[in-house]
Design goal:
single chain; mainly alpha; elongated
């Protein structure tokens, strides 16, 4: 963004630093996700791919509370940071909350879908359609929990900063007492008419 402000965007060097930091964190998170989901695993056996929606979630729930919470939590958390990092990298403060949510969730869903497709060729990794649902839900929950409140806070802060930095209007010189003008009477109508010729 630099020093020039775009309408609906965070302006100034602080905004540039936030966007760059968000970009670095986004790349680091995507590298972590690739390492977790796409590295070959040396395992003695692999479960079959789950292509039936919610079958994996039901199987996790059948394992009982602690294990089910861990597995479902991992699915929700894997891509959840994207729900915050994608809007940070975008850097827009004034945007429709629904449009922002839909854009972010769509990117998260496409990324999760891409991971599932790539896992078909990775030894030891199992394709699970429920991972797509959980990953996407995690992105949506993180976005809803943090982004609208964060944008609102940044808008207030930006407005306050602008007001504090705005130059004060020059003080008008002190004026003395306002002079009064004596009231002037209205001349009779006959004085305003030209004299009639004889």
């Amino acid at each position: 963004m630099g020093g020039v402000q775009r309408q609906g965007s965070v302006g100034g060097s602080a905004a540039s630093r936030i966007r760059v930091t968000g970009g670095v964190l986004l790349v680091a998170h995507l590298a972590f996700v690739a390492w977790v989901t796409l590295r070959p695993l040396d395992v003695p056996w692999v479960m079959p791919a789950n292509l039936r929606p919610f079958a994996g979630i039901r199987a996790d729930l059948a394992l009982g509370w602690p294990e089910a919470a861990r597995r479902i939590g991992e699915g929700l958390a894997l891509l959840a940071p994207l729900g915050v990092l994608l809007p940070v990298v975008g850097g827009r403060l004034v945007v429709s909350p629904l449009a922002s949510l839909l854009r972010t969730v769509a990117v998260g869903a496409l990324l999760s879908w891409g991971i599932e497709l790539l896992q078909t060729g990775v030894p030891g990794q199992v394709v699970d359609v429920d991972s797509l649902f959980l990953n996407t839900a995690g992105v949506a929950l993180a976005h809803l929990a943090l982004v609208p409140a964060g944008r609102s806070w940044l808008r207030r802060r930006t407005t306050t900063t602008r007001l504090l930095r705005a130059p004060l209007p020059p003080e008008e010189p002190a004026q003395g007492r306002t002079p009064t003008i004596p009231r002037v009477g209205i001349a009779p109508w006959s004085d305003a008419l030209p004299p009639s010729s004889p």
